[in-house]
Amino acid sequence: MHLKNHQGGSVLLEALIAFLIFAFGVLGLVALQASSLSANVDTQYRVEANQFAHRMLSTIQSSVSRGSAAAFQASLVAFNHNPTGNQCAFSGGASADPQVTAWLALLQTAATTRLPAADGQIQVTAGTPNQIRIVICWQQPGLPVPRRHVVMGSIS
What is the pLDDT of residues 122-152, one digit of tens each? Predict the structure, then answer.
């Protein structure tokens, strides 16, 4: 009978420890789910940015004037948009090309629906090869630093 008094409450203690282990497991699953959701959202934003960048690259490829070398270079350089600055702090002259302004309008419309606080930059380096660098930046909700996606191509 004396031994029985020393074991009183041990079942309750074991149950509490089991509940604590179970609670940590559930919290771990919740954290894993949140991390997975965040990665999925980031991937969706990157897909959207990639589509916008490649759409502009295709537009440039199909729209440059190929009548002469001078006309080619002039039409290519006209696509420059905020070509200076980096890390999403773009500066420089805005492009007057109607295709670029339409692309930017679409990008900024998408900023309210699919790509939050989006902005774009197009850098044209004329020469051999003619390089195009398109940068799209966006501010993902809940993150302090803007995200960016860079696509580079060559136009000939």
Answer: 999 877 788 999 999 998 888 888 999 999 9
Cα torsion angle, 128, 152, 61, 137, sign: negative
Q: Taking the domains of the chain in order of start, what are their residue ranges? A: 2-155
Half-sphere exposure of 13 (CA within 13 A, CB side): 4
HEC string for 26-55: HHHHHHHHHHHHHHHHHHHHHHHHHHHHHH
75 close to 64: Cβ distance less than 8 angstroms:
yes
Residue 57 CA from chain centroid, whole number: 17
Q: Which residues of 117-134 are buried (b: 16+ CB within 10 A; e: fewer)?
A: ebbbbbbbeeeeebebbb
d(CA 153, CA 155): 7
